[in-house]
């Protein structure tokens, strides 16, 4: 199976996905399907997690990249391939190219996380750092393709890519034949489109629901308009699904086959990532946790059994630390407070004793003494506390006020 160019007149069908599955035998893993007791209790129906975060390269992207590159003509393979990506697609293209003996060049933004840059190089690609935003990186990669004749490997806007990603849907049907709803993160649309092609052909009764970060959701306005609409995506922790415009090829399939596209907030994304880590013992990137975020935001909306596709687990450790703290705050388990104290010996010790009484764990303390808002005998203290939930946060605040402390925030 090979498509040299995206052809809207030649619709993608189940046989294409089955052909991709044969091509990927021995290359992509059939990733685990794990039950989630916590989410099952929350939803009131069985919930399973499709763990593409445990795929080779840490995401589903290897599937589509391998099928696309394997389908190139010999002269195209000889010219090499080029891609632009800040992470998962880069690693998928790098490994797929190495396995197929094809030279690959991957353009990545200058600020791309160092672990992702290092992994892309280790998989065999030549990495070129260019641009500060993905659009600049993409333009550089396309210019390189024109100048050298290398084949540009788009992350989602090509039928071969979509067919490869659709193999996730075939695995879901095999591993959970009773599935009624599939939740999948959606950026450009390749994964959601591929899953929908595979699943709807075999089980048209199964609902396929896409999930986007609310800050960068290009699909809702595009679906409303009936054609891809470009937006200016706002910053989101879910950079894996931060796409300013849906791809033409996946959009047509999503419009036809995907039942609904929902959006989730940054708080819901961070809470979902924290839940995956604590309850499922799985490291998942924010984009990969978006289906779980949808379950947390509206648990009664989905007919079970539900399969949530955890699309990737490549998260920078520094970002992970920030997200976990954000997730703890969203769950009411992390509290930041500023208070004013008299600037005298023993005042801080007394405050810490008050916090110990209400069983709040102090993570960090900082002082501000020079601020025009403070009196001559005052000091401002900022506290970061680990708490046990929203009710405990209220209890801590009330206890401090009862002790006479002036809580500013």
Describe this structure in words.
It holds the Pfam family PALP. Belongs to the serine/threonine dehydratase family. Keywords: Allosteric enzyme, Lyase, Pyridoxal phosphate. Pathway: Amino-acid degradation; L-threonine degradation via propanoate pathway; propanoate from L-threonine: step 1/4. This protein has 409 residues and is α/β, with parallel strands linked by helices. The protein folds into three domains: 14-56 and 158-327, Rossmann fold; 61-152, Rossmann fold, CATH 3.40.50; 332-407, ACT domain (Alpha-Beta Plaits, 2-Layer Sandwich). It has helices at residues 14-23, 37-43, 61-70, 74-79, 88-100, 114-122, 134-148, 159-175, 190-202, 219-225, 248-257, 266-278, 290-297, 317-330, 347-357, 390-402; strands at residues 33-35, 47-51, 81-84, 104-108, 126-129, 151-152, 181-185, 207-213, 260-264, 306-310, 334-342, 361-368, 378-386, 406-407. α9 (190-202) runs parallel beside α11 (248-257) and α12 packs across α14 (317-330). It is globular. It starts with 13 loop residues before the first helix and ends with a strand. Mean pLDDT is 89; it is low at 1-6.
Element layout with pairings:
Elements: H1 14-23, E1 33-35, H2 37-43, E2 47-51, H3 61-70, H4 74-79, E3 81-84, H5 88-100, E4 104-108, H6 114-122, E5 126-129, H7 134-148, E6 151-152, H8 159-175, E7 181-185, H9 190-202, E8 207-213, H10 219-225, H11 248-257, E9 260-264, H12 266-278, H13 290-297, E10 306-310, H14 317-330, E11 334-342, H15 347-357, E12 361-368, E13 378-386, H16 390-402, E14 406-407
Parallel strand pairs: 2-10, 3-4, 3-6, 4-5, 7-8, 7-10, 8-9
Antiparallel strand pairs: 1-2, 11-13, 11-14, 12-13
């Amino acid at each position: 199976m090979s498509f040299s160019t995206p052809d809207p007149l030649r619709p993608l069908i189940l046989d294409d996905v089955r052909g991709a599955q044969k091509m990927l035998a021995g290359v992509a893993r059939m990733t685990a399907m794990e039950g989630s007791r916590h989410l099952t209790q929350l939803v009131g129906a069985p919930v399973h997690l499709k763990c593409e975060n445990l795929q080779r390269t840490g995401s589903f992207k290897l599937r589509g990249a391998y099928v696309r590159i394997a389908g190139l003509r010999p002269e195209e393979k000889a010219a090499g391939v080029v891609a632009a990506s800040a992470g998962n697609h880069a690693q998928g293209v790098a490994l797929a190219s190495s396995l197929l003996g094809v030279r690959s060049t991957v353009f990545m933004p200058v600020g791309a996380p160092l672990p992702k840059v290092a992994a892309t190089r280790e998989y065999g690609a030549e990495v070129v750092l260019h641009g500060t935003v993905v659009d600049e990186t993409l333009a550089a990669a396309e210019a390189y393709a024109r100048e050298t004749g290398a084949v540009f490997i788009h992350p989602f806007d090509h039928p071969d890519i979509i067919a490869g990603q659709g193999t996730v849907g075939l695995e879901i049907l095999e591993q959970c034949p009773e599935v009624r709803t599939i939740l999948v993160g959606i950026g450009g649309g390749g994964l959601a489109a591929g899953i929908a092609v595979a699943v709807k052909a075999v089980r048209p009764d199964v609902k396929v629901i896409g999930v986007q970060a609310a800050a960068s959701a290009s699909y809702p306005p595009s679906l409303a308009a009936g054609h891809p609409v470009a937006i200016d995506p706002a910053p989101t922790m879910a950079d894996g699904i931060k796409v300013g415009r849906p791809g033409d090829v996946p959009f047509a399939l999503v419009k036809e086959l995907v039942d609904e596209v929902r959006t989730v907030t940054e708080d819901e994304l961070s809470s979902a990532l924290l839940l995956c880590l604590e309850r499922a013992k799985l490291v998942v990137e924010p984009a990969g946790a978006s289906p779980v975020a949808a379950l947390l935001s509206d648990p009664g909306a989905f007919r079970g059994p539900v399969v949530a596709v955890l699309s990737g687990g490549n998260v920078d450790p520094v970002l992970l630390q920030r997200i976990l703290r954000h997730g703890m705050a969203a769950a009411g388990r992390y509290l930041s407070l500023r208070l004013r104290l008299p600037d005298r010996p023993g005042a801080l010790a007394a405050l810490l004793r008050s916090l110990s009484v209400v069983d709040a764990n102090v993570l960090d303390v900082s002082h501000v003494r020079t601020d025009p808002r403070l009196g001559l005998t005052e000091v401002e203290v900022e506290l970061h506390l680990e708490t046990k939930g929203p009710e405990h946060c209220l209890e801590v605040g009330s206890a401090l006020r009862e002790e006479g402390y002036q809580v500013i925030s």
